Hints:
By secondary structure, the chain is mainly alpha-helical. Helix content is 80%, strand content 0%.
Amino acid sequence: MLIEHELEKEHCQMMRLFLYSTMFFSGMFFVSNVHAASFKCENAQTQTQTEHTVCEHRVLNDADVKMATTYNIIRRLVPMGTRGAIQDQQVKWLQLRDQCRDNVSCLTDVYKMRQQKLDIYMERVYKQGPF
Length: 131
């Protein structure tokens, strides 16, 4: 019984390491190609005030990269029903985020809230495995 528990614990740690490594390297790919993962900062004409603020503040930019990377990984690891719910939540979250406009404190809180929610989904994947 103790050995099974230790093996399960080791398996969870290995899954976490794998998923965090995937997130890190995916994030490196996104960062090398654009300033923020979910939109290009160069497109000043198409940016909302919120996106402009995210591009101007490194902390927000980094939060956007992490959130978008986590979101994209989770979308590929969960079953279709959950995937649809996560996508619907993302659309609502984007609407909430855009209400912050140029308020850095508001944006920081909104990104933190979304990342926490995505981390809960990631924790479920750790425990149950993909699909």
